[in-house]
């Protein structure tokens, strides 16, 4: 336990010393918030040609919960794989292994950092949104918190899986960014999903972020999208199994 | 006293590739034991099996009384190591590394005292990436002993270091041993092995081909001693009467005596007895490098 706390603490400090991940985790979500907020405002839109957009909500009420999910995804899908693959590349993981650190401790510390960073980043985002826009407060704070925990665990497992199979920090960063940007544009945190083509929507169904966004919005706005919970938990469980199967010390 | 390491017929395979075929040696308490061999001979695989980082496929292993295949985790808590190609994150600070690694194995000395002892206090808040090669080695040694181990493995510590840093690192290794810790040192530098090690195992082509002190190996494989000097006194054939002398060759003023054992002392005493005091009297003994090349058939 002492190892876990120490490793998480050091990893958190190392995270904050890495400019790229700090920008992605704290600054980029804010920029996206203000850009899309400037474009759409927060008036509930009328159906266009019979299509209800933003799940019938105001754009900001739709996007803010989506961004909270996006922040979690950025920490877990970009930072975790980069950090993990980098540590293996430099022989840091091998050194941990020789010091009898378990793979659970390594994975747990990544998850703990992701959780702290996501929570802080979400708090910054909410404060900014609260000052700038009149968006809806969560219907159920415990539900939202529960979803944050589930999303962090699921995405972190996915990130650990990526970090386990990718050979170097550079490869992990490239793949992580690619996955993150695809999820950003298709996964409900970019253009309103209702205006995307059928093919794009099908693809969106396969991105973890799309289901994460739906879960967060459901908890926040009191909606119910049905299957997303199950889908996301399956993605998390599959990543966990694969991550443990492929995690290498060197 | 029981051995710190006792390994008999160690074998390690990766699929059909044999990494280590037959390695046996024992390491005694508080000695610096060198493992010497060309690249790819199986040195690193051997010590990684001994630390329980890899699972040996055959042989009998006892390290600090544990079988690394059964008690790997217990064992790793009692040994320290600097593994090959194993660094730290560039942005990690010196004190953070010591604090972190001391937390992995409770019960060691306070990390602050380790930092002090290894002369790292001044660099306490320096980031790993900003340290010089020598300072990084100092930190690695401190991390290897931060859990108060009885046995430490150092794998290729001085590869890539400048000559000054190498010598500083040698002093660090000696200090570790002087505190009563047994040291296993993997190297491919002969001067390092000759300078530091009490005993050496030479591994070649996945097996141990020789074990002994550097002096004993040189005596056994080095092919004797040659003593040379210049003289104006003419014939020095009287040197041939001694058992240590194999041959005396004289070319003009230059004399070359080949033989074995304490040849230099015998020749010097006899010359002085004949009123000769050559100022260029010198002995050429084979170095460990010559021995290594002989044993491993290197250069062929």
Description:
- The complex is a heterodimer of chains A (250) and B (300).
- Chain A is mostly helical.
- Chain A is 76% helix and 0% strand.
- Chain A has one domain (2-41, 52-246).
- Chain A has ten helices and no strands.
- In chain A, helix 3 packs antiparallel against helix 7 (169-186), helix 5 packs across helix 6 (141-165) and helix 6 packs antiparallel against helix 9.
- Chain A starts with a helix and ends with a helix.
- Chain B is 32% helix and 27% strand.
- Chain B contains ten helices and 13 strands.
- Chain B has helices at 43-50, 72-78, 94-104, 111-117, 133-145, 163-178, 190-196, 214-221, 263-273, 288-296, and strands spanning 5-14, 17-27, 32-36, 58-63, 79-82, 151-155, 182-187, 199-204, 207-212, 225-230, 245-251, 254-259, 282-285.
- In chain B, the strands form three sheets. A six-stranded mixed beta sheet of chain B has the order 5-6-7-3-8-9, sandwiched between helices. Chain B has a four-stranded antiparallel beta sheet with strand order 11-12-10-13, covered by helices on one side.
- The two termini of chain B are 41 Å apart.
Helix content of chain B: 25-40%
Q: According to CATH, what is the topology of the largest domain in chain B?
A: Rossmann fold
* β-strand amount of chain B: 25-35%
**Rg of chain A, Å, rounded:** 18 Å
If helices are DSSP runs of H or I spanning 4 or more residues, what is the number of helices of chain B?
10
The name of the CATH superfamily of the largest domain in chain B reads: P-loop containing nucleotide triphosphate hydrolases
Distance between termini of chain B?
41 Å
The number of strands of chain A is 0
């Amino acid at each position: 336990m002492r190892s876990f706390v120490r490793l998480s603490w050091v990893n958190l400090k190392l995270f904050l010393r890495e400019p790229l991940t700090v920008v992605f985790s704290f600054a980029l979500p804010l920029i996206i918030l203000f850009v899309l907020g400037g474009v759409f405002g927060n008036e509930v839109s009328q159906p266009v040609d019979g299509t209800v957009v933003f799940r019938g909500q105001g754009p900001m009420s739709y996007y803010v919960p989506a961004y909270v999910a996006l922040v979690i995804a950025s920490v877990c899908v970009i930072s975790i794989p980069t950090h993990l693959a980098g540590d293996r590349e430099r022989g840091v993981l091998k050194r941990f292994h020789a010091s009898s650190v378990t793979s659970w401790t390594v994975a747990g510390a990544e998850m703990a950092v992701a959780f702290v960073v996501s929570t802080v980043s979400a708090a910054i985002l909410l404060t900014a949104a609260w000052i700038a826009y009149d968006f809806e407060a969560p219907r159920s704070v415990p539900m939202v918190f529960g979803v944050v925990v589930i999303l962090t665990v699921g995405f972190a497992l996915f990130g650990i899986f990526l970090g386990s199979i990718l050979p170097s920090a550079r490869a992990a960063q490239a793949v992580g960014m690619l996955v993150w940007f695809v999820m950003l544009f298709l996964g409900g945190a970019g253009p309103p999903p209702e205006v995307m083509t059928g093919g794009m929507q099908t693809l969106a169904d396969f991105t973890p972020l799309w289901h994460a966004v739906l879960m967060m919005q459901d908890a926040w706005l009191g909606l119910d999208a049905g299957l997303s919970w199950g889908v996301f938990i399956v993605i998390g469980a599959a990543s966990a199994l694969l991550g443990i199967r492929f995690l290498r010390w060197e | 006293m029981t051995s710190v390491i006792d390994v008999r017929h160690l074998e390690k395979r990766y699929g059909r590739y044999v990494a280590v075929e037959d390695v046996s040696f024992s390491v005694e308490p508080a000695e610096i034991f060198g493992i010497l061999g060309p690249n790819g001979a199986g040195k690193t695989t051997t010590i990684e099996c001994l630390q329980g980082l890899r699972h040996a496929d055959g042989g009998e292993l006892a390290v600090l009384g544990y079988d690394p295949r059964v008690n790997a985790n217990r064992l790793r808590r009692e040994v320290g190591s600097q593994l090959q190609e194993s660094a730290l994150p560039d942005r990690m600070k010196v004190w953070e590394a010591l604090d972190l690694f001391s937390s992995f194995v409770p019960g060691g000395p306070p990390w602050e005292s380790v930092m002090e002892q290894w002369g790292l206090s001044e660099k306490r808040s320096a980031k790993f990436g900003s340290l010089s090669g020598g300072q990084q080695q100092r930190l690695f040694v401190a991390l290897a002993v931060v859990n108060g181990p009885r046995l430490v493995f150092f794998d290729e510590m001085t590869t890539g270091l400048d000559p000054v840093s190498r010598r500083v690192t040698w002093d660090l290794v000696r200090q570790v041993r002087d505190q009563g810790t047994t040291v296993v040192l993997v190297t491919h530098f002969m001067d390092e092995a000759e300078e530091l090690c009490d005993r050496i195992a030479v591994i070649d082509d996945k097996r141990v081909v020789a074990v002994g002190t550097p002096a004993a190996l040189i005596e056994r494989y080095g092919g004797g001693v040659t003593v040379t000097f210049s003289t104006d006194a003419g014939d020095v054939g009287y040197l041939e009467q001694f058992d240590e002398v194999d041959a005396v060759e004289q070319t003009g003023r230059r004399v070359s005596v080949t033989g074995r054992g304490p040849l230099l002392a015998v020749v010097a005493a006899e010359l002085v007895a004949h009123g000769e005091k050559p100022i260029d009297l010198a002995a050429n003994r084979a170095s460990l490098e010559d021995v290594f090349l002989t044993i491993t058939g290197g250069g062929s």
